[in-house]
Amino acid sequence: MTERAEAIAAKIERFVRETVIPYERDPRLTAHGPTEELVQEMRAKARAAGLMTPHIVADGSHLSQRETAIVLKKSGLSPLGPVAVNTMAPDEGNMYLIGKIGTAEHKRRFLDKLVAGEARSAFFMTEPAEEGGAGSDPSMMKTTCRLDGDHWVINGRKAFITGAQGAKVGIIMAKSEDGACMFLVDLPDPAIRIDRVLDTIDSSMPGGHSVLTIDNLRVPADQMMGAAGEGFKYAQVRLSPARLSHCMRWLGSAMRAQEIASDYACRREAFGKKLVDHEGVGFMLAENMIDLKQAELMIDWCADVLDGGSLGTVESSMAKVAVSEALYRVADRCIQVMGGTGVSGDTVVEQIFREIRAFRIYDGPTEVHKWSLAKKIKRDHAKANPQ
């Protein structure tokens, strides 16, 4: 690990513990995430501390994935930490994608305000399942785009669009005759109608998760990212590191849950001794230590692969499965250790549990990633054993 990353991570941890954690009981936290007022208040403090968007350095370059891992882990010590310092999904992944694929004009117009923490963004890919649209299988995409003069016209429906409510920048995926396309758009736009914001188990992401309709949205041709038909390839540029970033952030949250549960077990007495001295409790905390370390090692390994220049689709799938399942076990055990207090709102542990439960689905459910890995096993076997 580099000295610069360790220095940034130390500052982030101090800021989250001293400044952000007190906001965890703020009345501006809603079922659909923190309000915009709260987001900007926390970001103003992060900006004053020199910690806004810490994974992107002053010259515009990005920390390595290995460096990003330690920084995002510390930001995740509170569910509000990534929001405050601008390392939260979907913005973190969208910034990465625009930085990789966007033109100089795209970066000036859309990326700069995201990096500054002045605006939020949304990634429009998933569609309503009841309408047969794209979910884990993006090839089912029904949203269309057609060229009309020097504009593209987009029509369709989207669902589970994180942060669409209140976003200023959108990345929309749609299908043309050439295949999937990707567009940058200013938000809000009257042609994009939010039908409802879903009530979901998680509540950490500003704006919640929306179902919306795109009705004859006209987008200038120069706002297409890359080339027509290459949208799925660009999506992988975003999704591989984005899956890993989720792992980094939620590792920090699971570590915080372990801290709280361990403190509870070392203070609470039952049947004549501290809870931690009962093997049934102490062993759960020990198992958490093991899961947390294995998750950290998996993240570091996958980060090394991405830093080595590989797209890392296989590796990010393995990390997503291993880490999300491990952290869910950690959060579940923390609640069990704390009993009734664990399921109450007296600590942040119950929220961390809810957030990590959702993480097992977001950016690809565990089963989809396993299916993808099984297909690779079959392909590799066929190569090694030609008929």
TrEMBL record:
<dbReference type="Pfam" id="PF00441">
    <property type="entry name" value="Acyl-CoA_dh_1"/>
</dbReference>
<feature type="domain" description="Acyl-CoA dehydrogenase/oxidase N-terminal">
    <location>
        <begin position="2"/>
        <end position="118"/>
    </location>
</feature>
<dbReference type="InterPro" id="IPR009075">
    <property type="entry name" value="AcylCo_DH/oxidase_C"/>
</dbReference>
<comment type="similarity">
    <text>Belongs to the acyl-CoA dehydrogenase family.</text>
</comment>
<dbReference type="Pfam" id="PF02770">
    <property type="entry name" value="Acyl-CoA_dh_M"/>
</dbReference>
<dbReference type="GO" id="GO:0003995">
    <property type="term" value="F:acyl-CoA dehydrogenase activity"/>
</dbReference>
<dbReference type="GO" id="GO:0005737">
    <property type="term" value="C:cytoplasm"/>
</dbReference>
<dbReference type="InterPro" id="IPR009100">
    <property type="entry name" value="AcylCoA_DH/oxidase_NM_dom_sf"/>
</dbReference>
<dbReference type="GO" id="GO:0050660">
    <property type="term" value="F:flavin adenine dinucleotide binding"/>
</dbReference>
<keyword id="KW-0285">Flavoprotein</keyword>
<dbReference type="Pfam" id="PF02771">
    <property type="entry name" value="Acyl-CoA_dh_N"/>
</dbReference>
<dbReference type="InterPro" id="IPR006091">
    <property type="entry name" value="Acyl-CoA_Oxase/DH_mid-dom"/>
</dbReference>
<dbReference type="InterPro" id="IPR046373">
    <property type="entry name" value="Acyl-CoA_Oxase/DH_mid-dom_sf"/>
</dbReference>
<dbReference type="InterPro" id="IPR013786">
    <property type="entry name" value="AcylCoA_DH/ox_N"/>
</dbReference>
<dbReference type="InterPro" id="IPR036250">
    <property type="entry name" value="AcylCo_DH-like_C"/>
</dbReference>
<keyword id="KW-0560">Oxidoreductase</keyword>
<dbReference type="InterPro" id="IPR037069">
    <property type="entry name" value="AcylCoA_DH/ox_N_sf"/>
</dbReference>
<keyword id="KW-0274">FAD</keyword>
<comment type="subunit">
    <text>Homodimer.</text>
</comment>
<dbReference type="InterPro" id="IPR050741">
    <property type="entry name" value="Acyl-CoA_dehydrogenase"/>
</dbReference>
<protein>
    <submittedName>
        <fullName>Acyl-CoA dehydrogenase</fullName>
    </submittedName>
</protein>
<feature type="domain" description="Acyl-CoA dehydrogenase/oxidase C-terminal">
    <location>
        <begin position="229"/>
        <end position="376"/>
    </location>
</feature>
<dbReference type="GO" id="GO:0033539">
    <property type="term" value="P:fatty acid beta-oxidation using acyl-CoA dehydrogenase"/>
</dbReference>
<feature type="domain" description="Acyl-CoA oxidase/dehydrogenase middle">
    <location>
        <begin position="123"/>
        <end position="199"/>
    </location>
</feature>
